[in-house]
Design brief:
3 helices; about 230 residues; Cathepsin D, subunit A, domain 1
């Protein structure tokens, strides 16, 4: 089930969420999503989905609220688009700022990857694993990724992604996941995506971004609220 707004549905047909809300099946016009590796096998991004509200016991401070914005790819506002304002690497005492300014970032549950521009991805690799650049390959059409044997992956520093200036830290554990089809093959969860020439950058925030977080998608107010999650 997709979570996008009705503007993106084929021929403008009502989405599952639209139908549930219009027929009075939900207390609130909202979805909440908790993703955590601890809910499944090592390397899995699994979680729980709550339609029509959220579980307050799972949502903890700090909580950040982000208004949904539009981008040139969908000016009508069909995606859960956010304003990404930075990408830093904590390597030593001072963070290395790889990206600043405004980047249009789309929340997506259809991929585990966080996708940035190929230029940004290569700059990130130069910082965290400069001797492993030869292991970068094409994972999918228009996308580059770092794949390696799990037992040979080096230790690398945390990466912080900023949304509207709010920091979201991703640890090395968060940024590695195992292939479900090839034994002992690991993916680095940030990849590089071809960007349209002359257009604003597009980032895709897949399920790795949701890791250890409780995310509330408020359809009525067009706001994304994100806080720390707790798994009992």
């Amino acid at each position: 089930m997709g979570f996008a707004f009705q503007q993106l549905s084929q021929l403008g047909a009502p989405t599952v969420m639209t139908n549930l809300w219009n027929n009075g099946k939900l207390e609130r016009n909202m979805i909440s999503l908790l993703v955590d590796k601890n809910l499944g096998n090592l390397g899995d991004h699994v979680g729980t989905l709550y339609l029509g509200g959220y579980d307050p016991s799972k949502l903890h401070e700090p909580i950040f609220h982000h208004p949904v914005i539009t981008g040139y790819v969908e000016p009508k506002g069909g995606y859960w688009g956010l304003k990404a304002t930075g990408l830093h690497v904590t390597n030593g005492t001072d963070p290395i700022k790889l990206v600043s300014g405004t980047n249009y970032a789309i929340l997506a549950t259809s991929t585990p990857f966080i996708l940035v521009s190929k230029k940004t991805f290569l700059a990130l690799m130069q910082v965290i694993a400069p001797d492993r650049l030869h292991e970068i390959g094409t994972y999918d059409v228009g996308m580059q990724a770092w794949l390696a044997l799990c037992n040979t992956m080096p230790v690398f520093p945390p990466v912080t992604l900023f949304i509207d200036g709010a920091p979201y830290v991703m640890t090395p554990e968060d940024l590695l996941f195992r292939s479900s089809t090839v034994e002992n093959l690991c993916f680095f969860a940030i990849g590089g995506l071809d960007q349209p020439t002359g257009q604003e950058p597009i980032w895709i925030l897949g399920t790795t971004f949701f890791q250890h977080r409780y995310t509330l998608l408020d359809y009525e107010n067009r706001v994304v609220s994100i806080g720390r999650s707790r798994v009992d």
